[in-house]
């Protein structure tokens, strides 16, 4: 039985209309996608075996014309490996992009599904269908086709590429590789050197040098040909699509379902700094010995600077019933050649400071992170400007793609948002300070403080789902409207450095801070101060202090982890006598040694792993959890929501659409 109506047959080419998009989202950035693009989408459909194997794999690639106002037309080739079909056709759909570059487009493959993602400064879109309930993981990339068209001379210089290929269907045969190449601009790549991991081979690397690699260009796309081989991991043709400046490419085999990303290297001193937009896929094979692997896919953003990263991924994982907002902290030490590693992922930062990544077995992965566009304040015709990228959690400072939750304390960035600086002096917090207001879906938000460039406000409890439309009103003049997705929870722990990093605001029972000089002890109950835990019971007025009799507890189950070990939660709710803050009382679990550990807080739809907690001595030999990648895999686990279980998510009978009768 088919659970999706996906096939549509016409004589000749077929037009397939994709499904509906979320309503109320800002569309003022629709012109960020405008013109002809090359794109590739790789989709892996999970089987019902419960082991991470696939029932199908497919790639969709070709050209897409965005009309700049919310509609697209694709001329595509669909490779459906399970069906053994290669099809061609025309697809149409719609898209919505905010001024920030965040948005979505209707899925070209599955009715009702949506590809969420972001557009970077060069008009490159990266995303994934994280909200799908049909049991698949995917990554979608599109880049503008430059004019004049790219030619062989475009592909010149040294490049590093990464490939992830799950298309065999078995985690034992998953391939993750990086390759270095030097293009001469005349059609020769010479010898390409690659290093690869294959699932069943474990940590043993495969190193190959492949000679006589050639390339041509057709219609602005590169066609790279590796000599045919039964032993080489790269063999036959691969289509590559280039960014307008030639510094980034993506693509894959025209007959399979792999994804490739690449970046030009050796052009100067790369840096990793500022806001980035990213998308990627992972496969955790650390559990192959237990008979299964764990794939996931994501899109999101990250802020990098000074060797630290605070990021967010909208993550769809095999472990969880639903996608989650995952916020994380990572560190980096960028070498002069643009590379760095943390032991579980290798990163390459190349021209235009584009970052690509490839995982080290057993954490195979591929991702790309692109510098975000700079949003000009002139988008606000009134002169009161709220940055579309400037709505962040006041505790973790997780980037804007993390969304917002009822009761969350936010920081808003912009310009000319207030005529002066003023801090609330009473509780409940007022909704007007210095003639400045913030509204969310028309509801006035309580204000903690206002300045011309920064405001702290509390999300109204009445905004519980859908899209939040946020505006700043300065002396009667309204700013541009910024849209955010509303989450049930968006936990962010306040930190002692007040920047989301380092030790969290955690206190002992005597009110003193937990830190390296006064660490928490095994079995001790400590209090964590944070924001973003959502609705509470009994309900309180917006901006009011947390009650003490009775306490206001969270409506959602909140769990905590210290170094990956679950820490029992005795209370989760509003902090008594304080406005805009929540409190979690947790007990330090046994089995952790002395050291600094990530303090993780999760709700039903979000997982935050950003700040640290200091723990005192124990007889355990467990080591501190410090060296990780931003995907969390270095900590030995991906975010797993309370009450979920390992299971297959695909629906029996889910198949890829037939665009036209198979080409035989």
Lay out the secondary structure.
Elements: E1 15-17, E2 34-46, E3 54-67, E4 71-80, E5 85-97, E6 102-106, E7 114-119, E8 125-128, E9 136-144, E10 156-165, E11 175-184, E12 188-198, E13 206-218, E14 221-226, E15 236-242, E16 248-252, E17 259-265, E18 274-284, E19 294-305, E20 308-317, E21 324-331, E22 339-341, E23 345-349, E24 355-359, E25 363-371, E26 385-393, E27 409-415, E28 422-423, E29 436-440, E30 443-444, E31 447-450, E32 454-458, E33 467-474, E34 477-478, E35 482-485, E36 492-493, E37 506-507, E38 525-531, E39 536-537, E40 553-554, E41 559-562, E42 565-567, E43 569-574, E44 582-587, E45 595-602, E46 606-615
Describe this structure in words.
The chain has 664 residues and is mainly beta. The chain contains no helices and 46 strands. Strands 22-23-24-25-18-19-20-21-46-45-41-42 form a 12-stranded mixed sheet, with no helix packed on it. Strand 41 and strand 42 form a beta hairpin. The chain is globular. Residues 1-19, 618-654 and 659-664 have low confidence and may be disordered.
Strand content: over 45%
DSSP helix count?
Answer: 0
Helical content band? under 10%
Shape: globular
Q: Mean pLDDT, as a whole number?
A: 90
What summary fits the major beta sheet?
Answer: 12 strands, mixed
Given the helix and strand composition, which structural class is it? mainly beta
Would you count the extended β strands for me? 46
Q: What is the radius of gyration computed over CA atoms, rounded to a whole number of angstroms?
A: 25 Å
Give the strand line-up of the largest sheet.
22-23-24-25-18-19-20-21-46-45-41-42
Query: Uncertain regions: pLDDT < 50 for 5+ in a row?
Result: 1-19, 618-654, 659-664
Distance between the termini: 26 Å
């Amino acid at each position: 039985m088919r659970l999706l109506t996906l096939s549509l047959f016409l004589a000749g080419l077929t037009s397939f209309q994709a499904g509906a998009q979320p309503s109320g989202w800002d569309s003022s950035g629709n012109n960020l996608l405008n013109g002809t693009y090359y794109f590739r989408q790789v989709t892996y459909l999970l089987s019902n075996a419960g082991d991470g194997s696939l029932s199908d794999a497919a790639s969709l690639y070709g050209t897409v014309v965005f009309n700049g106002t919310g509609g697209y037309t694709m001329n595509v080739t669909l490779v459906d490996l399970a069906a053994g079909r290669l099809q061609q056709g025309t697809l149409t759909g719609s898209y919505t992009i905010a001024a920030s570059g965040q948005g979505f487009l209707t899925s070209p493959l599955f009715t009702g599904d949506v590809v969420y993602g972001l557009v970077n400064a060069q008009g490159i879109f990266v995303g994934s269908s994280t909200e799908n309930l049909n049991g698949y993981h995917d990554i979608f990339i599109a880049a503008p086709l430059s004019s004049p068209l790219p030619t062989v001379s475009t592909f010149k210089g040294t490049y590093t590429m990464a490939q992830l290929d799950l298309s065999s269907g078995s985690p034992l045969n998953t391939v993750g590789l990086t390759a270095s190449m030097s293009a001469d601009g005349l059609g020769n790549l010479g010898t390409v050197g690659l290093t690869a991991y294959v699932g069943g081979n474990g940590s043993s690397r495969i190193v190959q040098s492949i000679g006589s690699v050639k390339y041509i260009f057709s219609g602005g796309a590169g066609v790279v040909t590796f000599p045919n081989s039964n032993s080489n991991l790269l063999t036959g043709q691969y289509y590559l699509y280039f960014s307008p400046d030639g510094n980034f490419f993506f693509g894959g085999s025209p007959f399979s379902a792999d994804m490739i990303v690449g970046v030009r290297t050796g052009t100067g001193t790369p840096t990793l700094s500022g806001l980035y937009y990213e998308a990627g896929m992972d496969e955790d094979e650390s559990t192959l010995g237990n008979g299964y692997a764990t794939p996931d896919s994501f899109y999101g953003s990250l802020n990098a600077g000074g060797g630290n990263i605070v990021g967010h991924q909208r993550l769809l994982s095999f472990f969880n019933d639903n996608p989650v907002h995952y916020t994380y902290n990572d560190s980096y030490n960028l070498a002069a050649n643009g590379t760095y590693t943390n032991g579980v992922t290798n990163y390459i930062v190349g021209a235009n400071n584009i970052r690509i990544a490839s995982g080290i077995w057993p954490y195979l992965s591929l991702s790309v992170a692109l510098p975000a566009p700079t949003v000009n304040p002139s988008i606000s015709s009134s002169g009161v400007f709220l940055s579309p990228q400037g709505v962040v959690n006041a505790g973790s400072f997780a980037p804007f793609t993390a969304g917002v939750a009822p009761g969350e304390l936010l920081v808003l960035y912009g310009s000319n948002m207030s005529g002066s600086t003023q801090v609330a002096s009473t509780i409940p917090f007022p909704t007007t300070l210095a003639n400045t207001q913030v509204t969310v879906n028309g509801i006035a938000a309580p204000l903690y403080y206002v300045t011309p460039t920064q405001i702290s406000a509390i999300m109204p409890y009445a905004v519980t789902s859908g899209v939040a439309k946020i505006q700043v009103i300065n002396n009667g003049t309204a700013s541009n409207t910024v849209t955010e997705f509303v989450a049930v929870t968006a936990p962010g722990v306040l930190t002692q450095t007040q920047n989301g990093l380092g030790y969290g605001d955690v206190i002992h029972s005597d009110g003193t801070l937990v830190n390296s000089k006064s660490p928490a002890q095994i079995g001790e109950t400590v209090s964590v101060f944070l924001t973003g835990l959502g609705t509470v019971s009994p309900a309180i007025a917006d901006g009011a202090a947390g009650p003490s009799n009775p306490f206001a507890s969270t409506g959602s189950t909140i769990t905590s982890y210290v170094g990956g070990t679950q820490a029992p939660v005795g209370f989760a709710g509003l902090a008594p006598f304080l406005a805009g803050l929540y409190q979690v009382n947790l007990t330090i679990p046994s089995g952790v040694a002395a050291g600094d550990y990530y303090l993780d807080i999760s709700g039903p739809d979000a997982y935050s792993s950003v700040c640290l907690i200091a723990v005192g001595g124990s007889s355990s030999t467990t080591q501190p959890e410090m060296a990780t990648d931003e995907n969390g895999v270095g900590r030995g686990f991906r975010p797993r929501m309370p009450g979920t279980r390992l299971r297959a998510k695909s629906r029996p009978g889910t198949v890829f659409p037939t665009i036209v009768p198979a080409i035989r």
